[in-house]
Fold these 3 entries.
Entry 1:
Amino acid sequence: MDSLVVAFSRELAHLETSPLELLGFVATLLNVWLMARNKVVGWPVGLVAVAAYSVVNFDVKLYADMLLQGFFFVTGVAGWYDWKFGGEQRTELPISRLSRRGWALTAVAVVATSVLLGGPFHLFTNAANPFLDSALAGASVVGQLLLVRRVLDNWLIWIVADMLYVPLFISRGLLLTALLYAFLVVLATKGYLDWKKEMAL
């Protein structure tokens, strides 16, 4: 583990990144920080981030994650509306919790996405890490849908997904993005704790 950290630090010191990856990095970090603070303005910032990362992921052959960015764009628009008007009588949407049935459906969705997307990507494309990429795409879809509906447990899904995205992005040479996802683990943890505290008020 120590040797991995040293190697990562050495590579980061000589980091070369594209302007789009840098834009995606900054916009994503700002987006998740705002969402963790339960601020609706995080949604339009997120739209900028996903537009940038859709191109970045295509360039490095992470096709499932590229498709995921398009989904994020559509749900970003929906989330922006729902947070402002999705409550009773078009009021602000309150924070809620995921049911046991919801957790079971989440597990099924992630496994199904890994197989249904990962299999064709593995057989018919030059995709990198197709099954892991697809499983994380599935987890990200569920996490995003729960975030749109302001469900507290979205943060738990993001914590696990973001932790697994770090080595995936390192393996594709996206060191800045890997660093971003390490930060996102911290922000998702803060989001979970802050939202939970807000629910208790």
Note: The helical segments are 2-13, 19-36, 42-59, 63-85, 100-124, 130-148, 154-171, 175-200.
Entry 2:
Amino acid sequence: MLAVEALFGLPHELLTIRHDVGKSAAPYVNGTLLAARKVMGVTGLVRGLDRLLFAS
């Protein structure tokens, strides 16, 4: 299992955000295919995956 953690904190405080995925690539397949389809219609430079996927 793969886990990614982001820790934020100050003295006496801690915020932990954790994302766990299984052993397969299945959680990433749909997003990767969506990005590949979207990028085929782009001309020029797009900065950020959010702008590519959610541009209006």
Note: The chain is about 35% helix and 30% strand.
Entry 3:
Amino acid sequence: MPTLWFILLAFMLSMYVLLDGFDLGAGAIHLFAAKNEQERRTILRAIGPVWDGNEVWLIATGGTLFFTFPLLYASSFSGFYLPLFVVLWLLMIRGVSIELRSHIKNPIWASFWDGTFFIGSALLALVFGAALANVMRGVPLDANGSFFEPLWTNFSPSGPNPGVLDWYTILIGLLALVLLTVHGANYIVVKTTGAVNRRARRIARSLWLPLVILTAGGTIATFSLRPSLFDSFNNRPWGYIFPLLSVGGLLMLGYGHSKGWELGAFAASAATILGLMASTAFGLYPDVLPAANKANSLTIDNASASHYALVVGLVWWLIAMVLAAIYFTITYRLFRGKVRQDEAAGGY
């Protein structure tokens, strides 16, 4: 049962990155793909019907973590206290920016919220990547499952007292920023026409090579810092399908851009994200929070709730997932297709 919940949590987190990822990417290109008020409304109108629903995956993941792996929840939320508050503020800034920009018809007002929307989106992608890198690198857990990380110490990923930020976590943060920016640009290409479509297409195409370089560099750095990841894949060779999925997504992404495939490029960036997320989860298993001292690591066995709680939780989780699937199916069907310029004239 703990293994099943590990898979389900990895699935939920991947869905969040996949869906809210294109919202973050759209915000990261907002000031560059749109040059006037109507074009910026077009981008906001493209994500407006779905962005808040996409963020529910993050809340649901946190709630699920609370009753499935309570020790992991307690350790991570206390140890990552500072970065979690940064994430909270960035989420609020981003949401407020989308909702308030059209309340006053003033160009200075709109420009201010456009700037905060860009900053909140770009920094969230960077922080989420750095957070995932902290988990991959390992944290200074003690024998009681407690730790605290300052924002930075000596910028070295090794040693007994690493900080949240070091050269490795920043590298993975940049990888996440570029990947989600490409993903968001591909989504805007699918949803728009005209000048916004062309600029978004150009942004996605120009970032493909940096994305390949960062992915290769991040992979090499991750396996160098955690050689035990090789054991996870060598002991279960079928897991190599996940890195192959991300590599195939990157190759298809470049090919899709060269051929002008809108949906194909978006599907390729989605495949890259899913491949990287699945590879990360597969490499970590059975750890859920690795420690610098491996003996103190939290695993699916020592961090999980009771069997009864996991079984009861599964019943309610399945009901919730059915309702969520219905909601997302209806929402994305209602707002499918391109955003028309006349639609962008109002609302956001």
Note: The chain has one domain: 2-239+278-345.
